[in-house]
Design goal:
Layout (H helix, E strand, L loop, with lengths): L8 H18 L7 H6 L5 H4 L1 H17 L8 H12 L1 H8 L1 H23 L40 H7 L4 H4 L4 H19 L5 H43 L2 H14 L7 H13 L5 H14 L3 H14 L4 H19 L7 H14 L4 H13 L3 H14 L8 H18 L2 H12 L12
Helix pairs in contact: 1-4, 1-10, 5-10, 6-7, 7-20, 11-12, 12-13, 13-14, 14-15, 15-16, 16-17, 16-18, 17-18, 18-19, 19-20, 20-21
């Protein structure tokens, strides 16, 4: 092919990379329900801020595809754009703990519900689930996942935790990742391939030359990230020592500085409990924090009604505290489950009302929706159960892989509602959706 022709492999490769980069700028990088974000007082601004910068790189890539010589493209600048894309999970899990917490709750609660569906499959069709029992929820997960328990962490087999927790490459994060991040990552790599193809005669030498600059920078960035997390663990341990010595003022001051330096600590139960006790001993405790530890103490003693009272007071003082909100929902769910599981005197109606309260605190909470759906149908409220099922189906669209068992059960409840309405054709259609994933979108999700 004539080298002067536009249709040469480096330009075609660069064009493909440019299209992917542009797609990365157009599509969201992270997906969470807006209503949930509003209630938690957070947003995805920083999660999607990289899209603006990526749009600039997409335009630059297009200009080198159609206008300027590819050989003049600043390769190191494009490499520099790829590194923040790779570190995106770290930025979210460390510097946006509320978003990370919501994502973890969506994923973890979804896993628990899926397990319940599988373990109780024999009860699915039995007397409209009259004999089924609900599971008590687990406590909310800490956002401080990079916790070094002992010296074994520094052994090589333990360093997968650095990738999963330190850099954020864990299942709960990727369960809600958007298409934009994947397009950005692919586009960045393809664009770099196109740049080096244009310099094929000296491509390997230039790549080696660039790596001599990039490798030290990359190692330095990773070392700073890992070093900061190790330092936080050392500082956290030191706070335990100071607390044991009775140096409560130092504990309070250092804790507040540490949360600004490493925001993920705001979602760690042990860290907040120590801070609250230290403030209590200095007679300068924040009311919201005091109510939180009192609620936590009652929760640990399975006194869920008292836990709810204290946690509500704590939430009124600090409405954007995601960990308080998470524990309050767990306290409500435990109350509802206990009512639902009462032998002989099962009170599904009361349980349903409590589950509704939990959803006001945490809209879209997967386990609360699932429990509410079951409570409604056991109470004979098939239409209300179907409405909850639709919420479940619509909420699953934010996940990369919707829970098959949960979706199937949601469509089962839609089937029962249609049967109660006497709509046989619609009943058959809903039943198909409950057993065939290919039929999910035939009539619209949750329609």
């Amino acid at each position: 092919m004539n080298q002067g022709s536009w249709f040469i492999r480096e330009r075609i490769t660069l064009l493909i990379g440019s299209v992917f980069l542009l797609s990365g700028a157009v599509f969201p990088w992270y997906c969470l329900p807006p209503q949930t974000l509003d209630v938690f007082g957070t947003n995805l601004f920083w999660a999607n801020a990289g899209r603006l910068l990526l749009g600039v790189f997409a335009i630059a890539s297009f200009t080198y595809t159609f206008i300027f010589p590819i050989q003049q493209a600043p390769r190191l600048v494009f490499w520099g754009a790829l590194l923040p894309i790779l570190l995106f999970p770290y930025f979210i899990t460390t510097w946006s703990p509320a978003v990370s917490f919501i994502a973890a709750e969506y994923y973890n609660r979804g896993e628990e519900v899926s397990s319940h569906v599988e373990n109780n499959f024999s009860e699915v069709q039995a007397q409209w689930k009259q004999n089924i029992l609900l599971d008590n929820p687990d406590i909310p997960a800490s956002t401080f996942g990079m916790k070094i328990e002992d010296s074994r962490f520094f052994q090589l087999p333990s360093w997968d935790k650095v990738i999963l927790e330190g850099f954020g490459y864990k299942n709960s994060f990727f369960a809600l990742i958007g298409k934009g991040w994947g397009f950005a990552l692919i586009g960045g790599m393809i664009t770099l391939m196109g740049l080096y193809l244009a310099l094929i005669q000296q491509g390997l030498n230039l790549l080696i030359q660039d790596m001599k600059v990039l490798a030290p920078v990359t190692v330095l960035v990773c070392a700073v990230i890992i070093g900061s997390q190790i330092y936080c663990n050392i500082a956290n341990y030191q706070l335990n020592v100071q607390f044991a010595k009775g140096e409560y003022s130092q504990v309070v001051n250092a804790s507040k500085v540490l949360t600004r330096f490493y925001p993920a600590l705001k979602g760690d139960e042990e860290f907040l409990e120590r801070l609250a006790k230290a403030e209590l001993y200095t007679d300068n405790i924040e009311p919201g924090l005091l109510n939180f530890i009192q609620g936590l103490e009652n929760y640990k003693n399975s006194n869920f009604l008292e836990a709810e009272r204290y946690l509500k007071q704590s939430l009124n003082s600090q409405p954007h505290s995601f960990l308080v909100r998470g524990y309050l929902v767990a306290a409500l769910l435990n109350q509802g489950v206990n009512y639902f599981n009462e032998p002989n005197t099962k009170n599904a109606g009361t349980a349903a009302d409590i589950f509704e309260k939990a959803l006001n605190i945490f809209p879209g909470h997967v386990e609360a929706l699932y429990d509410l759906m079951l409570a409604r149908v056991v109470n004979g409220e098939f239409q209300k159960s179907a409405e909850v099922a639709k919420q479940i189906i619509n909420g699953q669209k934010y996940l990369q892989e919707p829970g098959i068992g949960l979706m199937g059960q949601a469509y089962v409840h839609l089937t029962w509602a249609e049967y109660q309405n006497g709509n046989i054709d619609k009943t058959w259609e809903r039943y198909r959706q409950s057993v065939d994933t290919k039929a999910w979108d035939e009539s619209g999700v949750g329609e």
